[in-house]
Each structure stands twice: as structure tokens, then as C-alpha cells.
């Protein structure tokens, strides 16, 4: 497994930093966001370190599929799959990525119409 010693999300995968884990898959871990933007806000991350979704897609065939598949399983488990949910990947600081370890945000539990307003 490829991880970085100083990466917050790698530390969560290793159990060195506490998180409210809601699902563990073979290749992923899902946990509640500490600053939720919706009633349901869960992060789904790969166990292996990849800086962002684009890097993972280029380097590891099937990893992004696993993250998306497990994100849907989180939505089912959280009871938001039928009403609808948003899955967001921020790539780069200009897009709001603050932890440079691939993570998908599963958001739901209220209306998330686009554009907002």
C-alpha cells in the first residue's frame, strides 16, 4: 500500500487520527466530514495515496470506479440514494481541495439543486 507519512487522510487510514468511519471497503474508507456542508456529508477516500482524482485515474485503473461504487454504497447506507445525492471531487487548490489525497464528497439529505438559489 502506498501512503505518505504526513498526509492527514493516510493517517486516518492507518488509524493514527480518529474519524467517524461509516464504511470500509477493500480499497476505500468512508468517514464523516468534520465540517459538513449538508445533513449527510461523507468523504470516500482510497486506502492508497493519490494526490487527486485525475492522478488516480491516470495511474491506477479501477480505483476511481471503486471510490464511486463505494460512494454509492454510502448513499444507500445513509438513506439518500433514492432522494438524490451529489458526489464531488475537488482537484487542485483553485477548486477548493485542501487535503491533497483523493477524496469524493458524498452530499445529500436536503435539496441540492443546481444552480443554487
From TrEMBL:
Motif (Histidine triad motif): 101-105
Entries under CDD domains matching the protein: PKCI_related
GO molecular function, a single term: catalytic activity
List of catalytic residues: 103 (tele-amp-histidine intermediate)
Domain of life: Bacteria
InterPro entries recorded: Histidine_triad_HIT, HIT-like, HIT-like_sf
Pfam family, one: HIT
Domain HIT: 8-117
The protein's name: Histidine triad (HIT) family protein
Organism name: Nocardiopsis algeriensis
